[in-house]
Amino acid sequence: MAIQASSNIKSAMKKLLPILFFLLSCCHVALSQDYPVQVTTIVTPPYSLYLSDYASPESNTLQVMLQLKELDRPEYRVKLRITIEGQGISLRTKATFVPRAIVLQGGVPEMLTGADLSAYLNPNNMDFLGTTQQAFMRTGMFPEGFYTFKVEVLDYVRNVVVSNAGVGNAFIILNDPPLINLPFNNDKVVATDPQNIIFSWTPRHTASPNAAFSTEYEFTLVELYPENRNPNDAIRAANSIYTTTTSATSLNYGIIEPLLIPGRKYAFRIRAYDVSGKDLFKNNGYSEVNVFQFGDACVAPLKVKADPLDPVRIKFSWEQQDVHTSYSLEFRKEGTSTWEQQNVINDAVIVPGLQGNTTYEYRVQGQCGSIQGPFSTLATVITPASDTSAFVCGAPVPEIEINTTPLDRDLRLLDIIKTADFEVIITDLTANGDGSYKGTGRAMVPWFKLAGIRVKFSDIKVNQDLRVFSGNVTTIYSKDSRFVLSADLSSDDPEAPDTGSPTAPPAFNGMDTVLTVPITNVTIPSGNNAVIVVTTPTGQTFEIPRERNEDGTFRDTRITDANGDTWTVSSGGDIQRGPNVAPPPAYASRDSVNFRVNFAALENQYYGFDSKHFQEVAEDKININGEDYWIAWKSVETGRQDYVSATASGQTTFPAKVGFKTSNGPAMHETGSSAAFRRVSVMGLVDQQVEALTAYVRVQEGQNTEEVQVGRLNVKAYDKVQKKVIVVPVNNASVPAASAISEQLNNIYAQAVVGWEVIVEPSITVEESVIQNLDAGVSGMLSSFPENMMSFVRTFRNDVNRFIDGDAYYIFMVNNPNAGRAGFMPFNRKFGFVYTNKSTNVITTLAHELGHGAFNLRHTFSPEAMLAAEGTTDNLMDYNNGTKLKKYQWDLVRNQETINGWFEDDRKRLMGGLRMIVRVLIHQGSTLLNGCNKYDALLFLM
């Protein structure tokens, strides 16, 4: 019975214990509500694994709110006890720690943050459970996992708890680094010109409970050299060719970034980091390293050959490669050192004006956009000996038996056809439907070493010997025409706008995006018009961010996929498959076209612009709407893009029916800074080639539509000229920083497509008496130095501890109170002087003097280049602190004027000699088939 009773008691106790614990907890809650201090603990994400981050003065991650509930109590001195628990460890404020008292006032809340809690969170003031202080301090980090932050308030004197336990929770983990989307690893990216590559990645921290609210990304790009190098080693060890930061999850690598070399391999990675400096990502935020190849290498042309046509002409030809956009032919007499150059866009060129029975060396270089490939193997060709028989003007044409069997292939550009005893080089060609051809060419007549006369032909047919047996060949006559002496067969005039460039790419004024995957659809989501969504054949989608213009509107976007298919997304969101080449709407009558389109420089243009200010150097004039229209000029670097502004005279809003085009097709344009302006894209194609940008309208005349020209701009491309200048201060003369000089100097000379590398050397010290004698009259007076300056330069060059860079120009910065001008540099010299105390803008003066020394540019007020009186223009070569360069100066940079004589006195005498001008007066409509008796050759000596 006793055993049975004991069992019943135990059973009853088991049932009563839960009830007892519940009652005790209720009592605890009831008692906690009577504490005089209320505590609230707040832990704000993102949560750091480092204890020190919660104690940082700048941190608000851990916040403690204290409130004394006894309103009649003026102040109460207390202290805290903080406990952090989780993942098997516990950190708690030491009982022996005596902090500074916290004084609470009745009813007034007190907020404590990192600066207030730093003493409590000092590891030296905490007890460690589950680990040791030494082990924790090796990293200062909590293990990843769930943690509670408990804060209790203790009476400062009695050391008893006087508050509830304020608890905050935190799930502390490190986030995954970004995942790269494009380009795919080991992919080959299409090389475009201008370059444009989309890099995109997916953040993997945004859905994390410990997401960073202010994350940025560091993008790093390196070249793999050799290409089989481990990309992880390369990106850690090599100097990056490009590093930038962004808050977006994609990056457009375009024209303003460092140029990539076709055929080379590159590695890149993305690093995510919190802008506040907290360590919130695994692997320090670094993604995996991806590798891609930028297109194919720009190789040398193949099957290069030279065929002598006669003693003075050679036809050079080669096999075109898909990667090539143009070619550069170089040739010279064997045994000489100077190369002559021809730039062409086709696979052949004929060079006239050579010498008979002479050996020539030649080589050809392929151009891939702005990239120059290697030269072909050096080869030689021998021209045949000259025929000593004389050409007799008016002699009868010999009888020629003509075969009428048609040519068994198509006629091509640069083919040489025969008409009577003349040869015609075809420069423009159109096939008719009946097997005949029309076009233009050059007849090589035997006068003056086969100089060329422009001809046109229509309905001609040629036989197997390339001899014309049917049709008409006539000369092209103009009262302003002259003999064609140019060796450039791509144009009838070296300065004439290009009328056809079949291999040159059309300019697109927008965001050009090339993808390495095929796509099936392009859309703009209804809820977010700032992105373009593309879909692949597998159903995968990804976003391309849209760029904006200066006025906030979206730029036109052209997307090209791996198959070469294109989609054009307009600024307004219209999506069109294929290129947008629709002509503008037509006017009902010509009377409605009462305006002209004028071109002007954009404020933020990259290169130069020259409009008519001085008729002496204005080059081209046409008639538009019955008035003279002077054509302006625009300079662009070969393979680069720039923009110009267009306005319509007398119109407050630019007419919507105006189109723009070049010989290659439509030119892209968009609304400028206001409705009255259009921003028009221009492209530099081939060095020294001039391209006409035409503004036009369409007019409906009955059943026919006519194009009417309302404006024109000549765009001339130049290969970039790279120069180097070394600035040498003398006796600690004040000199701007190299970066400031470089920026302003390159901005000035970008007009002529010239780049400058700038180096500022340490100051040199000379006797003051030497400086006081460094003066020699007016700038530009001498083409050589006076003896005192020559002695200064000689001493500088002969310093055994100094290396003189033979490719650089040296400018000495001198503070000379006796100087009579701001600078001095003779023509075609490597050394010059700038007097800092006499110059109001040292960098502009430096640029002015380099114009003399590096490019032989004259003063605008000198008698030989007289534009205007001294100090009245904004030109760099005037004495007015100007920075502008005109078109004739762009050309002189590359074709420098020869200067001779010791004394220049700003008259800088021209080289003496005779210039021969050959004019052939051609009767309009005369035919070459009748010999030369209708031509009068006049020879003038000047």
Fold and architecture overview:
With 942 residues, the chain is mainly beta. It has seven domains: 1-30; 35-172, Immunoglobulin-like (Sandwich), CATH 2.60.40.10; 179-294, Immunoglobulins (Immunoglobulin-like); 302-382, Immunoglobulins (Immunoglobulin-like, Sandwich); 511-577, no CATH class; 586-712, Immunoglobulin-like (Sandwich); 721-894, Collagenase (Catalytic Domain), CATH 3.40.390.10. It is 11% helix and 37% strand. Strands 31, 39, 41, 44, 46, 47, 50 and 51 form an eight-stranded mixed sheet that branches. Strands 3, 4, 5, 7, 8 and 9 form a six-stranded antiparallel sheet that branches. A hairpin with a 5-residue loop joins β29 (452-462) and β30 (468-475). α6 crosses α9.
In percent, how helical is the residue content? 10-25%
Number of domains: 7
How would you sum up the global shape?
globular
Q: Could you give the count of β-strands?
A: 58
Biggest sheet layout? 8 strands, mixed
Distance between the termini: 148 Å
By CATH, the architecture of the largest domain is named: 3-Layer(aba) Sandwich
Question: Could you outline the blueprint of secondary structure elements for this entry?
Answer:
Elements: H1 2-32, E1 37-43, H2 51-54, E2 62-68, E3 76-86, E4 89-93, E5 102-104, E6 109-112, H3 114-117, E7 126-129, H4 133-137, E8 145-155, E9 166-172, E10 179-182, E11 187-189, E12 197-202, E13 215-223, H5 231-237, E14 242-246, E15 250-253, E16 265-274, E17 290-294, E18 302-310, E19 313-319, E20 326-333, E21 340-344, E22 348-351, E23 359-368, E24 371-375, E25 379-382, E26 416-419, E27 422-431, E28 437-444, E29 452-462, E30 468-475, E31 497-498, E32 511-514, E33 521-523, E34 531-535, E35 541-545, E36 557-560, E37 566-569, E38 575-577, E39 586-587, E40 597-601, E41 609-610, E42 621-624, E43 627-630, E44 632-637, E45 641-648, E46 659-662, E47 665-666, E48 669-671, E49 678-683, E50 690-701, E51 704-718, E52 721-729, H6 738-749, E53 754-760, H7 768-772, H8 787-797, E54 809-814, E55 823-824, E56 831-835, H9 842-855, H10 887-894, E57 916-922, E58 935-941
Parallel strand pairs: 11-17, 31-50, 32-36, 39-50, 44-51, 52-53, 52-54, 54-56
Antiparallel strand pairs: 1-2, 2-6, 3-4, 3-5, 3-8, 4-7, 8-9, 10-12, 12-15, 13-14, 13-16, 16-17, 18-19, 19-22, 20-21, 20-23, 23-24, 23-25, 26-27, 27-28, 28-29, 29-30, 33-34, 34-35, 36-37, 37-38, 40-45, 41-44, 42-43, 45-49, 46-47, 46-50, 48-49, 50-51, 55-56, 57-58
